[in-house]
Design goal:
single chain, 327 residues, alpha/beta, Quinone Oxidoreductase, Chain A, domain 1, six-stranded parallel sheet, 10 helices, 13 strands, ADH-like_C, oxidoreductase, Zn_alcohol_dh
């Protein structure tokens, strides 16, 4: 089969012939219909994940964890699935049931009992880039790793379930209530989904911030109340003017460390900052956090994928979201 394989060189992927995976008992063979590029994929290709255990760029990796695929072969012992079913990732990583986190029902934090103190062992064995990604003609997955797609959900929309779930988790972490004001920094795929979920949650004013005019235009199409380009306005005074005291919450959907300091200056006293983008090590001023009595929360894989799928299936998102993610 054909697959997009890393060469070990920065930002280089090459189409190669690789063995088609075999379906074993209890597994499904699927043909990829659509695969979205995650920002973390790009970071991996830039080798900016090298500070994380297993994050260094290497040759032979097949990326792609945001996908829609069609079942073409069903392994022995699999029930409730048949050829022709379309699916996306369920996000299920497996839990040990024994660690500190599982015993407190914090299942999204489980890395296995032997890794209770670990940080980055969620990276698959062999590094972030492994050979089972969906940037290939075929993939093998277990039924527990998949969600069936309703017939009316397109393959492109199916590939956006995983990134949208990040936006759902961000808004849940923010605790947005009807009438709140929110700033979403970054109007890429994650930011646009976050912005739309904030509107669904009842935010009365959502301000999208980005450096690219085309992204801001899409944000307006998807319901942003205000869009701001820091290259064109003095961002912090303008946000404070629009929200009177500063927004109730700032959600960071980019991977720029300086943006964290911008969010601190921008948010109201007693406000909340939610970090979605995996910000690299950066210099901060915690004293300002104390003076403003700020709250912080970081988001990684906390929301079931089915929540995002239900939002898409019930028409909560306009076509602009799918269009914004096409190359």
């Amino acid at each position: 089969m054909k697959a997009a394989v890393t060469t070990g060189k920065l930002r280089e992927i090459r189409m190669e012939d690789v063995p088609t995976p075999e379906v074993g008992p209890g597994m499904l063979l699927l043909k990829t219909a659509s695969c979205s590029v995650c920002g973390t994929d790009l970071e991996y290709l830039d080798n900016t994940l090298a500070y994380r255990e297993g994050g260094a760029l290497h040759a032979g990796a097949i990326l792609g964890h945001e996908f829609c695929a069609e079942v073409v072969e069903v392994g022995d012992g699999v029930t409730d699935w048949e050829a022709g079913d379309r699916a996306t990732t369920s996000g299920f990583r497996g839990i040990c049931g024994e660690c500190y986190f599982c015993r407190r029902r914090l299942f999204s934090l489980c890395l296995g009992k032997e890794h209770e103190r670990s940080i980055y062992t969620q990276i698959p064995q062999g590094g972030y880039g492994n050979r089972s990604g969906a940037m290939a003609e075929y993939i093998v997955r277990g039924p527990h790793q998949l969600l069936k797609l309703p017939d009316h959900v397109s393959s492109t929309e199916g590939a956006l379930v995983e990134p949208l779930s990040v936006g759902v988790g961000a808004v849940e972490a923010a605790g947005i209530r009807p009438g709140d004001t929110a700033v979403v920094i970054g109007a890429g795929k994650i930011g646009l989904g976050t912005m739309r979920v904030a509107k669904v949650a009842g935010a009365s004013q959502v301000i999208a911030v980005d450096l690219h005019a085309n992204r801001l235009q899409t944000a307006l199409q998807m319901g942003a109340d205000v869009v701001l380009n820091p290259k064109e306005v003095d961002l912090i005074p303008e946000v404070v003017r629009l929200t009177r005291a500063g927004p109730d919450v700032v959600i960071i959907c980019v991977r720029d460390g300086e943006v964290l300091n911008t969010a601190v200056d921008m948010v109201r006293r007693g406000g909340k900052i939610v970090i979605v983008g995996q910000i690299p090590p950066t210099e901060v001023n915690p004293g300002m956090w104390i003076v403003k009595q700020l709250r912080f929360e970081a988001v990684l894989g906390r929301t079931p994928m089915i929540t995002a799928l239900n939002l898409i299936a019930r028409g909560a998102f306009v076509d602009s979201y799918a269009s914004s993610s096409r190359c």
